[in-house]
């Protein structure tokens, strides 16, 4: 898959907290760490976001980080401000981008099945090609794993 070929536009919050429209194809041109997470302000999602925030010195010269969830722009703004996040958050309420990347699917909690975000991360090169992917991510140690792959 090449993101340059994707004709998907989502609203988001840039690294400075400003609302902006993002054409996914326009993310090409810079190495991108695109990660999908289920929900703002939940324990695992907060930990993952804070791990990216705390490691900005390890990725900012090489890549941009873009987090995606079905949450609203209002929720993203609150999450970004509360956690001091320093990267882009995109709102995908119709899960169009998540479905495109296979990060939307059936999940199960306490025996109940439902559809939702499957925590996933994709490393995308400057040409817009997915060069590495992580599916069904466990938060602990994940950001270190991604940043190690970024060095390669």
In short:
It contains 5 helices and 9 strands; from the N terminus they run βββααβαβαββββα. It has helices spanning 43-54, 56-59, 73-83, 96-100, 142-151, and strands at 9-13, 19-23, 32-36, 64-69, 88-91, 104-109, 112-117, 120-124, 130-134. β4, α3 (73-83) and β5 form a beta-alpha-beta unit.
Give a description of the structure.
The chain has a single domain, classed as Glutaredoxin, CATH 3.40.30. A seven-stranded mixed sheet has the order 2-1-5-4-3-8-9. The chain has a two-stranded antiparallel ribbon with strand order 6-7. Helices cover 28% and strands 31% of the residues. It has 152 residues and is α+β, with helices and mostly antiparallel strands. A hairpin with a 5-residue loop joins β1 (9-13) and β2 (19-23). It has five helices and nine strands; from the N terminus they run βββααβαβαββββα.
